[in-house]
Amino acid sequence: MFPLIQRCYFHAHFKLQTLPVPRLLLYGKNKTTCSSLGLHRLQRDVCLLSRSSSLNPASIHAAKLQAFHTSLPFFKKKTPKESETEDSGILQRSMKSLKDSPKPALYLSLAGLIPFVSVPLSMVIQGTYYPELAFAQITYGAVTASFLGGMRWGFALPENSPAKPDWLNLANSTILPLLAWQALLFKDITHGAIMLVMTLGIALHYDLSLLPTYPRWFKVLRVVGTVVMVLSLLATVALKSFSEQQLSNSRNKWQNTK
């Protein structure tokens, strides 16, 4: 019985490869008809070949070496409209989570951003760079980063908290004050601001992905607050570089006139 099945399979496979391609394959509407015609021909050839003589062992070995053709799967690409819909959906959910946050947490977090925004805004309005205000902004940013680290420590202390008081939570909460302290040690405001930006980015990474999760509204609030703080620090650095450039240009002009 098994040799008969092998004989039928080999001849059927050979006939299937040598069958002429019908012209109907060129038309998309008649693919089903062509497939049914090829299936009837295959069944007829199998029945005729089942009555023939025994198959040569060399042919069986050649049939085993035949490679089977498999077409690659077709992956559907997202259209720009679908991606825009997904982005708008994420934005809407984020705004909804921000509105659902407790009012004291929302208002106090927004009020805590005022010292960051007021420093570069006042410099732009007056048209003058003040190193004292820039240092005050760096100091307030270091205090804020230390507060974010200490908040993690307090979150891990209660017995029913999902965050355990282990090395991961407690050690990562103490890293942020150390980085903030390092930002205050720089004599140059630019270096301190860059160090503080890195500290705020690490704190956001901790709160969003590394450590056990906070509520969704707090995550959205942390993202918004971090973006505002980073942009304010970068604006101060840009104003400092612009002021130094203007000062160097004025000195060059004064030396040339002299």
Distance between the termini: 111 Å
Q: What characterizes the major β-sheet?
A: none
Class from helix and strand fractions: mainly alpha
**What count of domains describes the coordinates?**
2
Count of alpha/pi helices: 10
**Beta-strand residue fraction:** under 5%
Number of strands: 0
Shape: elongated
Tell me the Rg in angstroms. Answer: 36 Å
- Approximately how much helix is present in the residues? over 70%
User: H/E series, N to C?
Assistant: HHHHHHHHHH
The overall pLDDT, averaged over residues, is: 75
**Uncertain runs with pLDDT below 50, 5 residues or more?**
12-35, 46-75
What does this protein structure show overall?
- The protein is mainly alpha-helical and 258 residues long.
- The protein is 76% helix and 0% strand.
- The protein is built from 10 helices and no strands.
- Helix 8 packs antiparallel against helix 9 (189-210).
- Residues 12-35 and 46-75 have low confidence and may be disordered.
Features:
0% strand; 2 domains; mainly alpha; 258 residues; single chain
